[in-house]
Every structure is written in C-alpha cells, then in structure tokens.
Amino acid sequence: MWFFLLFRFYKFQKFQIFLLAARKRKKSATANYLISIDPTDLSRDGNSFVGKVRSNALGTHFTLYDNGENPKKTSVIGDAVRQELAAVIYDTNVLGFKGPRKMTVLIPGICDTENYRRKEIRPVLERDSILERWKTRRADDLIAMHNKSPVWNEDTQSYVLNFHGRVTQASVKNFQIIHEADRKFSENYLKMHLMQFHVFLVH
C-alpha cells in the first residue's frame, strides 16, 4: 500500500470553500506535487488535474506548471506545451540554516494591461524557462517578488517579522512575500498548527 503527502487549500469566509488539493507523486526523484480541483480525484489523467509543482534535486528551485504537455515527452508543440506559471528560488544565507531563508518568487508579467492578460511562457528548451531567464538576466517580462527580511530581536534572540497579531505559532515557515515597487502588497504565509498553514493577501 502506498501513502502520500496530501494538502488541501480552502478559502475561509463565513464558511469553508474548497479551492484545490495537491498530493506528492509516488516514486518521484524530486519533490513533485500534482494539483487538482477535485479533493477526491488527484490522478494525473483525471479531468480535474490542473497542474503540478516540481523542484530540482536540491529542493532549492521550484516551478509551477499548468496541465499542458511536457515538451520532452511529446512531439506536440504550440499551445499544447505546458505553461510555466511561477518559479520559486531559495537562497542560502551566511548563517546557513540558523538564519532566515532568502526567497525569490517569479511570475510572468502582464503583456496586455487593458485586459490584465499575463504573458504565456511555454518553454520548449530549458534556456527559455522562467528560472533560466532569471539566471541569465532576461527577466524583463517577469515580475520578481522577495521575502521580507526579518529583523534581529535582542529580547527573544531571534529573527522576527511583524505579522500584526496573526501568528499563533513561531516557525521558520512563517514568511512575507513583497514586491519592491509596491510594498503595500504582501502575501503572508503563517504556520497555525502542526500541519495547518494560512495565507493572507494584503494590497
């Protein structure tokens, strides 16, 4: 019998609304999660499959794809090739694992401001991926966001961020994502319980 890690994502208003679920794929060499809009059907061939997240071998680079085809496994090109929707880069710091982690979040930019349509990135070659565009400074059509750097607190002898009272559990998994050009916008990811996390959007 196989067991796999499963996450479910809900929107909380007056009642709980299911948004999506993700499960870790079996026998995958790297962290690889399937994403579905059906909490009971998380198969790769299911009608509810909408995308996946995959990391590199070190777990420092992550890419979010839609449900299109992998260009390495098919002869189909064009709109059938999967889109890259986002990428996340974890960087080490001078304190190693003892200090705050550095994170960069990359998403395709807006190519049609009138209709708020984002640029489609469907790389057939590795050099055209979001991560490679960023590494080679071809990032004019990307939006880059970073985690807000914590401040050292002498009283607690730890790095801290101001989550405005939302934090219920101290954790290195608590972080804020900000856009340097618009610091009023932020995403706050907070660990609430052992396996429960909350996301707050501020704009």
TrEMBL record:
GO BP annotation list: protein localization to cilium
Compartments, record wording: Cytoplasm
Domain Tubby C-terminal, first and last residues per copy: 13-182
Record-linked Pfam families: Tub
Protein name: Tub domain-containing protein
PROSITE patterns: TUB_1
InterPro entries per record: Tubby-like_C, Tubby_C, Tubby_C_CS
Stated family: Belongs to the TUB family.
Domain of life the protein comes from: Eukaryota
Keyword Magnesium: no
Keyword annotations of the record: Cytoplasm
GO cellular component: cilium; cytoplasm
